[in-house]
Amino acid sequence: MKRTSQQEGALMELFVNSLKDINWAEKQLVKALKKMAKAASSGDVSKAFEDHMTQTEGQIERLAQVFELLGKKPTSKKCEAMEGLLKEADELIEETEEGTEVRDVALIAAAQKVEHYEIATYGTLKTLAGTLGLAEAQKLLQETLEEEKQADFLLTEIAEDYVNEEASKE
């Protein structure tokens, strides 16, 4: 079925609004990752958050490139989903004892919820870019999607390798 220009316009509007949403989310995540890195007990968990913070800054730059490809300024709109996920992360920090592996388990769980949200969002954006014939944008979004999947994998590895086991001994 061939799309009408009105349908394509609506799809492009959805795409741009979703870009604004994830742009806000990524900017808030940079701040949250800094806080999470400081709250972590394990050096490995802290380093994973710091590394992902640096990676997230690159993802924000990549989003700016996508906006540029569309001839738009990189703007943001509040992402209610990310706000909720980061609020939950803050609550977990408050509810767990400083210096414990249990806190690290909670931080990893919170971070993975964020990663799964980002994986879903970037997967959708990549697909929409392809549907809209935006090959370069699709490539940039795919790159970020792969980084998010890798970050999630790394967090799982850290949790499974030792953090969860150590927390069970506390």
From TrEMBL:
CDD domains in the record: YciF
InterPro entries according to UniProt: DUF892_YciF-like, Ferritin-like, Ferritin-like_SF, YciF
Superkingdom field: Bacteria
Residues forming coiled coils: none
Pfam family, one: DUF892
Protein name: Ferritin-like domain-containing protein
Source species: Taibaiella lutea
